[in-house]
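In this supplementary section we document a worked example of the pipeline. Step one takes a protein sequence of length 199 as its only input; no multiple sequence alignment statistics are reported here. Step two produces a three-dimensional model, which step three serialises into structure tokens for compact storage. The input and output of this example are shown verbatim.
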Amino acid sequence: MNIINAKASAQNAEEQRLEFGRRLRDMRSDRNLTLAEMSELTGLAISTLSKVERGLMALTYDRLSSLAAGLGMELAALFGREGDSFKKNSLAVARIGEFQPQETEEYSYEILFPEIWQKAMTPMTGVVKAHSKMSFDDYIRHPGQEFVLVMSGQLTIYTEHHAPVTLSAGESAYLDSGMGHIYTSAGEEDARILVVACP
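The serialised model returned by step three reads:
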């Protein structure tokens, strides 16, 4: 990535964090909740919620899931006030660049079909920027199951109950999302992955 692209990417990530923070603050205000009350509902620390509202940090998928569950809404609703429910005989297409970005220190998520609510699964593509397990304070855990397919690079999956597994492009894994897990890129190249999470 050249310097111009890196600056543009950083600026886009900052704009996305600020927009998400405004949306979260509005949701909290609409529900007449304090930060402490929202923290109690979602299980997220007050300091974390405050940083998110101010656009200083983005949430990982497990924290997004906790936020949505605590507020009694589906994850897609965190990214927009309106959405269409998935209906029988529906067909939706995501063209290149049509996704909701979520940029964290360890991952760049691209949440697909955020405008479709009541999906049975949450499909995402993304880039794994972390190259070491030490990049994480703890394992990631959230309800459900997930499928991960490596599109390029190599991915190492660390879990609480199994030895680390390294996957190459074209290889995949299916796991219990409630089991602590971490994805890191193996080698010098960031891994590009497709993840499908089911609640």
